[in-house]
Amino acid sequence: MAQRKSPFFDTATTLGKVVAFFGISALAGVLVAGLFTPLAAVVGAGATTASSVFDELPAELEEEPMSLPSEVYSADGKLMAKFFEENRIPVKIDDISENMIDAIVSIEDERFYEHHGVDGQGLARIVVHNLTSDTTQGASTLTQQYVNNQLINAGFLRGEKRLTYSGTKTVGDKLREMKLAVAAEKQMSKEQILEGYLNLVLFSRTTYGVEAASKLFFSKSAKDLTVPEAALLAGIVQSPGAHDPISNPESAKNRQNQVLRAMYRNDKITKEEYDEYVAAPLKLKYSEPKQGCFSANFGPYFCDYVRRQILADKTFGKDEAARERLLYRGGLKITTTLDSRLQKMAQKQVEKSVPIGDKSGVGATLISVDPKSGDIKAMAQNTKFAIDKKRGSTAVNFNVDKKWGDSGGFQGGSTLKPYVAVAWLESGRTMGTRVNAQRDHFPQYDTWKASCADGGSIQILDNNGWKVNNAIGNMKKPMTMDYGLYWSINTATVNAAKELDLCKITGVMDRVGLHRADNQEGIDPTTPSFLLGAQPIAPLSQATGFATFANDGKRCNPRAITKVTDAAGNSYKVPAKKCENVIDSDVVAQLNTTMKRIASDRIAQGAINFPIAGKTGTNDNESSTWFVGYSKGLSTAAWVGRTTDIKSMVGLNINGVVFRDVWGSIIAGPMWTRYMTEAGPLYDTGAFTAPQKKVRISEPSTRQDSDSSSDSNDDSDSTNSQSSNADADNSTRSEQASEASSESSRPANENRGSSQQNSSNNGNQSQSDNRSNNNRDNNPGRSRNND
């Protein structure tokens, strides 16, 4: 049986209301020194009890900084986005219209300048009204409202679960509010209280404070508010939802008239002014505030990357909830590495290559880092940052690892071949050393050296062994490493790796920061298919790796944030620039002799007049294409490919063009070239470091040599592969020519549909290495020339 409430303490009964009235009055009387003396006398000894209760209540208001929006800026000072739970723009009392002050005092607390925090006369009147009427009225002074808003603000920032909103207050809450109001009046001037109140109070949904409200409803500053505008805002605070002039204009107008009447009653406006303003309709100039990365002014995917970095960093709070409170309420100023100029250029080029919403569904990205610092300078993709299901919309960031953007990355294809070349050079060979690219089959149980694997080696386990093919015909022959890398010959890369230690190759990748996008682990050396780019990689990882080649072998960790301060001026520790020499500078210089020709001759084709270098890449069945290139001042990864399935792009209509072949040089390469033509000159365009010893590159023989490759450098009869046209089988034709050639130029048994990324239909890449019969890791031979 439910316990029955005593009518003496049940505030729903008239008797309970009377008792509550006298009790609160007596307690308040102790506070305000005689304001409630007649009422206190009625309750007699109750005042003594009240006094002891009040002694235990806090005497000072423990304030927290006002909840303020956090702002994210580009490196060049452009506002990118705001994050807020409470959109607020603090202003001084001198920057608030006198009309606003008159309006709020008239309607909320007309004896504000007379009382000392608690208005005894007003309280008595309101209690009598509430006892004798079916409606209720509040009795809080502006000072009490200021105190309560401070308590709510502090509660949010501290993560407290219970907050003292109107309608949820207990008697104890109200008494604490009264005592703190009296204390506030002793410590603050009336102007300071008004300033605090008008900066704290809620006006509409997430809009707090008079300045933000003025900009929301009138697109002007609070110092310029007219009388009717001030009256409208002053009326809203009683019930922001009910009096919202957008959703409830009639209620808002009625409330505005009530405020105007109060202003007239308090001699703040004349009768003529009152009549004029009451007769006039509402006049709004509404400006919806934008917040979060979905409303970013530019770089929304980079904005989300920064947001995730903040939420993952313990510097900003003990747990993610605390970090989120700080981000949305702490008034942070976050300065990032992004260059708004480059971001605009990158966004223009990805949309020019594959427009947002293109029927092909193909994705395109560009991401740049500064090789000397690791600073991310641009991050663009050809989609709208949104969570709706419209074509061309996604919240998945294709540029970064799954942890930071929900994408599992894309197979790198031939962009991984330069790392094999680095290991080749580190072994003491040169770009002129010949490799036997003739061998194209490695039988089951064929053994490869892998010092980091169990037993120091790995074996080919597929029943049929590993069959390796090239896209350019008649290239299975001995050739220099330079020649094989320049024309991206699979058999050259694989046979070079066969002479090396696979773990030495993945060790190079580890040193430059290249890793899998799906789990952020290093590239797995136990399946040789990694040599031809079978494992999923993010464009940021690609740009960072190649930046090492631009920076003479020094890798700089990628970073997005350079400075964070809060509203109080406190600074937060952010990752500092961290660079490390990871490859000998002369090794890089030798590699760059080949990489420069790839970028200049085969990709830019004279369109860029400063030194550049890079490498193309296309995965197995042409669903993912790359060009990753660099100048001294910028390393940029360009990617174009499928994002939601593993189908080939061959025959697909992309931006009005049907592609019979899709290679890194066809879409990604030109996109990179157009972008770097604009962006490159804004950064260092100096020459790459020259090798200490010039190596003459020998032309590969047109005859079929023996299976054994030569480690010697044939310097006697050589011409640079850049100018070579002597191959009798026409295998030195340009990649562009090969793209237009007939299928007969490819090996008849070439597999074009093997391992690709396994993606969900919502664009959330969950890259696998094809855990099936076509698993490239288990059957690493299903490969053609990956560009």
Automatic annotation (TrEMBL):
Catalyzed reaction equations: Preferential cleavage: (Ac)2-L-Lys-D-Ala-|-D-Ala. Also transpeptidation of peptidyl-alanyl moieties that are N-acyl substituents of D-alanine; [GlcNAc-(1->4)-Mur2Ac(oyl-L-Ala-gamma-D-Glu-L-Lys-D-Ala-D-Ala)](n)-di-trans,octa-cis-undecaprenyl diphosphate + beta-D-GlcNAc-(1->4)-Mur2Ac(oyl-L-Ala-gamma-D-Glu-L-Lys-D-Ala-D-Ala)-di-trans,octa-cis-undecaprenyl diphosphate = [GlcNAc-(1->4)-Mur2Ac(oyl-L-Ala-gamma-D-Glu-L-Lys-D-Ala-D-Ala)](n+1)-di-trans,octa-cis-undecaprenyl diphosphate + di-trans,octa-cis-undecaprenyl diphosphate + H(+)
Asked if Transport is a keyword of the record, the answer is no
User: What's the top EC group for this one?
Assistant: transferase
Q: Where is this region: Disordered?
A: 691-787
Keywords (alphabetical) are: Carboxypeptidase, Glycosyltransferase, Hydrolase, Membrane, Multifunctional enzyme, Protease, Transferase, Transmembrane, Transmembrane helix
Q: Where is the composition biased (Low complexity)?
A: 718-787
Listed InterPro entries: Beta-lactam/transpept-like, Glyco_trans_51, Glycosyltr_51/Transpeptidase, Lysozyme-like_dom_sf, PBP_transglycosylase, PCN-bd_Tpept
Q: What is its EC number?
A: 2.4.-.-
The transmembrane segments are: 21-47
Domain Penicillin-binding protein transpeptidase, first and last residues per copy: 367-632
The Glycosyl transferase family domain, residue ranges: 77-263
- The source's superkingdom equals Bacteria
Q: Which Pfam families match?
A: Transgly, Transpeptidase
Give any GO molecular function from the UniProt entry.
Answer: glycosyltransferase activity
Q: What is this protein called?
A: Transglycosylase domain-containing protein
This protein's species is Micrococcoides hystricis
